[in-house]
Write a structure and sequence with these properties.
Keywords: Coiled coil. There is one protein chain. By secondary structure, the protein is mainly α. It is built from nine helices and two strands. The chain has a domain of 166 residues. The N terminus is likely disordered.
Length: 262
């Protein structure tokens, strides 16, 4: 999780600072071993952390969409549909090109070439969609950059962005990082309700144990205090007894001395 957030932190637009956790692969085995002995419920913490992160991203996305509605020229429903068709094809090209480049870097040449063939077909469809979109509105309006917001990472995408720009976006660290985060969150949420309830019960049991310990210490302290007071009273009683005994002895001695004088 920290690694994915670190990827996003490298992008100034989504700078959330450095992760305060320690990320050391050498400690992974120790962590897994410790988790087998004692359930730390780290998956519940991770789920809640990612939920908060993705919720923040979705709020950014919605806010960006509202800003576009306020600042961009409003399109009719028909023209907007044609513009979206161009956007969707452009995004598909960018995603496929990024994937083809990734396969090529891995040495999978045949698979990469196959995707490049698909890209050519997509480019033809995009060109036709652009012509349809262009013919549906004045030239001055068409030349204006029409933006949309990426549903994954909330970045702005333009209808006139070229293939290279789109490939850089869809193959970039920010976008791929959000994909990994969303996939991981979806995986964790499958058991989240069950795991959250298990942690709640565990925390409740631990709280009862702590209360019992405090109560036991309190009772033990009371017993010790009563014992201390009892011993103190006993010592005081013995001291008084000895004092009375010494006083009686002293009186007898005085009477004896007085008799001898007479």
């Amino acid at each position: 999780m920290g690694k994915m957030l670190a990827i996003n932190a490298s992008m100034s637009r989504m700078d959330i600072g450095e992760c305060p956790k320690i990320h050391d692969n050498a400690l992974r085995a120790d962590f897994e071993k410790a988790q087998q002995k004692f359930d730390h419920f780290y998956d519940v913490d991770a789920t809640e952390h990612l939920q908060a992160f993705i919720s923040d991203c979705d709020r950014r996305t919605e806010a960006a969409r509202k800003r576009l509605l306020e600042t961009q020229e409003e399109l009719t429903a028909e023209v907007a549909e044609k513009a979206n068709a161009v956007h969707e094809l452009a995004e598909k090209i960018g995603q496929t090109l990024a994937k083809a480049e990734e396969l090529g870097a891995q040495g999978l040449v045949d698979e990469s070439l196959k995707l490049m063939g698909e890209i050519e077909d997509l480019r033809k469809k995009k060109s036709e969609a652009e012509d349809t979109y262009r013919n549906s509105m004045p030239v001055s309006s068409y030349q204006q950059q029409k933006l949309r917001v990426c549903d994954v990472c909330s970045a702005y995408l333009g209808i006139h962005d070229n293939d290279r720009r789109l490939a850089d976006h869809f193959g970039g660290k920010l976008h791929l990082g959000f994909i990994k985060i969303r996939e991981k969150l979806s995986e964790l949420e499958k058991n989240y309700v069950e795991r959250h309830e298990a942690r709640r019960k565990f925390d409740e049991q631990e709280r009862y144990k702590r209360d019992d310990k405090r109560s036991h210490r309190s009772r033990s302290g009371d017993r010790n205090e009563r014992h201390r007071r009892s011993r103190s009273r006993s010592r005081h009683s013995r001291h008084r007894s000895r004092s009375r005994s010494r006083s009686r002895t002293h009186k007898h001695d005085r009477r004896d001395r007085d008799r001898r004088r007479h």
